[in-house]
Amino acid sequence: SLADSVETKQQCESMPNHRWQNHKYNFDNLGQAVLTLFILASKDGWVEIMYNAIDAVDVDVQPIRNYSEAKLIYFISFILIVSFFVVNMFVGVIIENFQNCRAQQELEEAGRDKKKYEKILERKQSLLSDLSYYSKMSRCRKRLYDICITKYFDLIIAGIIGLNVVTMSLEYYSMPHELEKFLEYCNYVFTVIFLLEFIWKIIAFGPVRYFREKWNQLDSFIVLVSVASVVIEHVSHGHILPINPTLIRVIRVLRIARVLKLLKMAKGIQTLLDTIMEALPQVGNLSLLFLLIFFIFATLGVELFGKLECSEEQPCTGLNQHAHFKNFGIALLTLFRVATGDNWNGIMKDTLRHDDSHPTGRNRLMIIISSIYFVIFVLMTQFVLLNIVVAVLMKKLEDSNAMIEQDATLGEEMGQLHDADVHHGSNAEQSLLDMNGPCVKEKVIITNL
């Protein structure tokens, strides 16, 4: 084509209906270079910027494909140093300072040691009530309880759940009738096994103590869903009652919840999930801050970029019918995409366009405002607030691990005192309550950067 024969900016501008245009992200001045490097640090669209730089020949000269491949060293070095190390060190500083602030705040709270001791005393009393309860069991029930708390019992149940998952994965569309009947009978067998486990544990632990744990409540829900699915399918196949097929499909899908029974046996995952639940109040406060930031930036986005249109003369690389700032609702969704890092540099590129109908000074001002708008939003959402959420979870996980160690110690104490109570008639309750002294004081180490 005629454009392919152009080599310089002067030749381009001498041709009718042609205009010399630079790439939006370039290194023409310090401001543009900083903005381009910020995009590289976020790792969103950095490959395209690198290829454009490799094709660059000189000032006001037409690019040539793969003209200077040595520039790869510059970009790869920047990604390795800044994106992989500097950004992660920035995240580490945020997390450490957040945890230090939390530790200082907890240290200044009145009655902190007293509350901690009250929690320990409460856990000890709970263990003692269980000790007294289980010591009065009948021999048969005690035997059931001893079997339930062994690791082999959990391993057998875990193996059965694994087999159940394998049988569920064998189902496919237009499968033979024999395989369909086989999987149906397997479902009956597994449902009966899980129902027997449920009844066994209720007898062993007692209804009150069994349902006191949330994981047992989840187990109960899974068993009830399994029984309900068998009953509903049986009633439906026998044409006893008219049942909506959609309800049957939903019940069948809920069978996959049996996999969740494995979570009860994975102590590490249990701790992680419990940590997330305990951190919800603090994460909720951060979520409100997120909403506030999204509300402010969505309102600004509608005012600043609400009239941007995509056309053949002004094509868009990020904005489209599903991502724009023409109304508040879609602006919120667009900012959510920006916060996740999905082509946010393409959305910003569309807002950096040059409008010939506006004065040059206004165009420059809008480019500056757009750059500041997106850089601040990306910094606050991708780099700061999300990492504060991680810091909250890390702090809660650390506290949960400390509590697990404390429970293990209390469990050993309870076992020792139980043996002493049986063989020597000692007062186990008073001895356990007296352990660890009247108060437990936690050491808090504050580090300053």
Automatic annotation (TrEMBL):
It is a multi-pass membrane protein. One of its GO terms (molecular function) is voltage-gated sodium channel activity. Keywords: Membrane, Transmembrane, Transmembrane helix. It is found in: Membrane. GO terms for biological process: calcium ion import; membrane depolarization during action potential. It comes from Rotaria magnacalcarata. InterPro entries: Ion_trans_dom (IPR005821), VGCC_Ca_Na (IPR043203), Volt_channel_dom_sf (IPR027359). Residues 18-105, 151-399 form the Ion transport domain. GO terms for cellular component: neuron projection; voltage-gated sodium channel complex. This is Ion transport domain-containing protein. SUPFAM superfamilies: Voltage-gated potassium channels. The chain crosses the membrane at residues 72-95, 144-168, 188-208, 283-302, 365-393.
